[in-house]
Amino acid sequence: MIGIDVGGANLKIVDESGVHIHYCPLWKESDLAEIISTYAGRENAAVVMSGELADGFITKSEGISYIVDAVLQTFPDAVFYGTDAKFHMKACPQLAAANWLASVDLLRRTYPDGMMLDIGSTTADIVPFSQFTRLIGMTDTLRLQQGYLVYTGMLRTPVAALAHSAEIGGIMTPFSTEYFACSGDAHFVLGHIGFDEYSSATPDGKEVSREACLRRLARMVCADLEEIGEEGALHIAESFWAAQRDLVCTAVEKVRKDAGADPLLVGGIGSSTFAPLTGGVDLTSALGIPADALPAYSVREIAGVLERSYGTV
After folding, report:
1. By its UniProt entry, which NCBIfam families does this protein fall under (predicted)?
2. What's the pLDDT score for residue 92?
3. Out of 21, 23, 104, 172, which residue is the most buried by the measure of CB atoms under 10 Å away?
4. What pLDDT, on a 0 to 100 scale, did the predictor assign at position 28?
5. Nearest residue to 106 via CA among 256, 98, 139, 140
6. With contact defined as beta carbons under 8 Å apart, do 4 and 22 qualify?
7. Which 3 state secondary structure label does DSSP give 193?
């Protein structure tokens, strides 16, 4: 069995050989079904999703149906994990944004009093494991209200969404609010991610390199890189990072304090960056769990346990 997590920008698949991440933006003409078809021949698939929210779909129901149909073309017996903590065989509203709950459902079985920070390309899921039944049925809107979802990530957050100015040539300079640079650019030049981790499209469609990222960052103050130099562009990256770090770490501490949760388990491509800052455990380095595809890994494990125990999911 393989585990599949269909996001709005990335398709993540976990199988016996490891983690496979495909850039697959659902707001454009998607090759989702084609990519999944390359895994044909596996016994079955367990699936979670959050890509139904992509703005290529008029409603989330339309997105759910699109994703389910794409999977069923290759895996007609696939099972889909929902926010009711159950598996389903066809499209239904419960499938919307259930990927985070699959991760919680798996991790709580070993760490019932713990909590999770899963920070990926786009969002940060910050969820305590205790009182799991209270989490069942929780939508992303409710999670935003509870502080369990913080909409910022390591790659796709516009720089101007969190930071507003940086010191350029000794003068505090406001940012433009254009989508000139993203969190991936900031994290790349600061050394938090490498080329392989920068898997999403760049704001200008150009390459991923240190110079290209610095050029995009310089655009935030309407400048060429030659005008403000590498130092100025790095100040822009540092301004964004300070704002994002404070936002995520503050949210983690609030949830940890309110729930009395311990330990904190950190997943996502930001795990190695945020685990030391939050006093958390990096799921990959400490526990050998593939942090960069935690929901796909989790849904595969949960489905596997049910199949071994009952002969069916």
Report:
1. one_C_unchar_1
2. 98
3. 104
4. 76
5. 98
6. no
7. coil
Across 284-303, b (16+ Cβ under 10 Å) vs e yields: beeeebbbbbbbbbbbbbbb
Residue 31 has which token pair?
A: 């090759």
Distance CA 214, CA 65 (A): 40
Amino acid at 32: L
Report the length, in residues, of the chain. Answer: 313
Q: What is the mean pLDDT of each run of 10 residues along the chain (313 residues)?
A: 94 95 87 96 95 94 97 97 97 97 96 97 96 95 97 98 97 98 98 95 97 98 98 98 98 97 96 97 91 95 81 73
* Nearest of 226, 223, 238 to residue 189 by alpha carbon: 238
Q: Which two structure tokens, joined as six digits, stand for 12?
A: 């993540």
Going through 215-280 in order, the beta strands assigned E by DSSP cover 264-267
pLDDT at 30: 87
The distance in angstroms from the start CA to the end CA of the chain is 11
Question: What pLDDT is attached to residue 44?
Answer: 95
Alpha-carbon gap, residue 214 to 141, rounded angstroms? 35
The total of other beta-carbon atoms located within 10 Å of residue 231's CB is 10
pLDDT on residue 163: 98
Say how far apart CA 313 and CA 309 lie, in whole Å: 9
Distance CA 114, CA 265 (A): 7
Type of residue found at 1: M
Whether the model clears a pTM of 0.90, i.e. scores above it, the answer is yes
Amino acid in the structure at residue 16: E
Cα maximum dimension of the chain: 67
8 Å CB contact between 118 and 284: no
Alpha-carbon distance 108 to 237, whole Å? 36
* Residue 210 phi, psi (nearest 5): -60, -45
CA distances from 204 to 59, 173, 178, 210, 215 (A): 28, 22, 11, 14, 10
What is the β-pairing status of strands 45-49 and 115-119? unpaired
Contact 61, 68 (CB under 8 A): no
